[in-house]
Amino acid sequence: MKLWTGRFSKEIDKKTNDFNSSIKFDQRMYKEDITGSMAHATMLAAKGIISDDDKDKILDGLQGILDEIEAGKLEIDPEAEDIHTFIEQTLTERIGDAGKRLHTSRSRNDQVALDIRLTLRNEVDELLPMLEELVQVLCKKAEEYSDTVMPGYTHMQRAQPIVFGHHLLAYAEMFLRDIDRLSDAKRRMNYCPLGSGALAGTTYDIDREMTAKALGFDGVCMNSLDGVSDRDFCIELANALSLVMVHLSRFSEEIILWCSWEFKFIELDDAFSTGSSIMPQKKNPDIAELVRGKSGRVFGDLMTLLTVMKGIPLAYNKDMQEDKEAIFDAFDTVRMCLTAFIPMIDTMTVLKENMRNAAAKGFINATDCADFLVSKGLPFRDAYKATGELVAFCIKTNQTLETLPMEEYKKVCDLFDDGVYEAINLEKCVNDRTCLGAPSPKNVEKRAKEIAGNFSRNK
Prior knowledge:
This protein is mainly alpha-helical.
């Protein structure tokens, strides 16, 4: 039976009921719904709105329903309108009139708003440790490969020498920002809408602060209209999750490139690769490709939420039922991606020699060659031009800056001497990049330890 049948003279059409129902996706909030109802019943009794006897029956009944659902003894009715209806009706069937008193001074509007906040708060709490684990893996790998020289790229062209550890820490910094964004969104979300009623609060003498405190909120929503109609937190979380997927997708793109024979910088463990049904030589980075592809799904969830909310007048509208599928899917997708991505990174094999060989080509030490002339007193723009002429000559004669004879250097600029060969040594190039945030091995090791240490202290 529907909770709103008093106004209506006939049963809702079966197809309409299926269209209207949200039980398929909101049933995951059963625990949060029960937790919120327990806090609500306790507050009602404390304020003398229901009796202590009714409160005790309600709490015992709700606990029994929770225990049975989690033990698999009670199946959630797929024909129920939503999880709130299912739990309230099951409770009333078991404890009688006391169950009918639970909804006093409460609307499904503020009940739904409460449940989704509680659910998403838990979702954030589950996701943050996964992101922290990924950052820890990146820090461990960064320390291990703090002196592994590789080419850094701009425009997908070899640009300047860096170390692989520094490259990995760039992603660690991205995921640190993701952790901060999710934590910040959780903080802004952590206010209790219960007591907002349908839109205008209630005439009962309730204690909203008591309920908020019991449920671990930092306070209450201070406007009843906003309390039931706000879904900013869903959009904000979806945006933060979209950025997580942007970072995972960018990383996946590089993993895919690095695995190719054209790069061959890394090799993925067999447990995180697949083969071809027709080409026996293939080892495909399917996990990285799937992560890259699933980013679009999460972006779509964000666009769904923005589109749903953009034209809704205050207060609650049924459109807002669409919030749950989108934000739940976003969390589920990111969690699934991290579950596969973290061990894939942790077990990958780094082919250091291939990285070093790639760094030796492409004249990525040209800036260091120019800086050598600057150290001799030549203005940078003149040094830049002289080095460019050397690079053009090397390309024409199939040579490198390292192999170019000194007489050729002298033809371009007489400030060159044998010290240039040391200056353009790749290891020296990265070792000398010691300014804050630069890729010297010492910097990389220090930053990796700093990040990992912060996580340890926070625990």
